[in-house]
Amino acid sequence: MLDAALNAGGVKGAITENTNRQAAAACRFARFFAFGEILPR
Predict the structure, then answer these.
(1) How many domains does the chain have?
(2) How far is residue 23's CA from residue 26's CA, in Å, rounded to a whole number?
(3) What is the pTM of this model?
(4) What is the pLDDT of residues 1-41, one digit of tens each?
(5) Domain that holds residue 29
(6) Distance (Å) of CA 12 to CA 4, 9, 28
(7) How many angstroms separate the CA atoms of 39 and 34, rounded?
(8) Of 25, 5, 2, nearest in space to 13 by CA
(9) How crowded is residue 24: how many other Cβ atoms within 10 Å of its Cβ?
(10) For the stretch 3-16, what's the b/e string if a residue is b when 16 or more beta carbons lie within 10 angstroms of its beta carbon?
(11) How far is CA 20 from the centre of its chain?
(12) DSSP sequence for 4-22
């Protein structure tokens, strides 16, 4: 039972980490896109 709980926690942690990474990448992309639109003009 404890092993199952730890395993589920590990999976949840991995999903959270992946989501955070994707959010950070989206943030960087949005910032790059916004500055890319503003700066050249």
Answers:
(1) 1
(2) 5
(3) 0.49
(4) 567 666 666 777 777 888 888 888 888 888 877 777 666 55
(5) 1-41
(6) 12, 5, 24
(7) 9
(8) 5
(9) 10
(10) eeeeeeeeeeeeee
(11) 3
(12) HHHHHHHHHHHHHHHHHHH
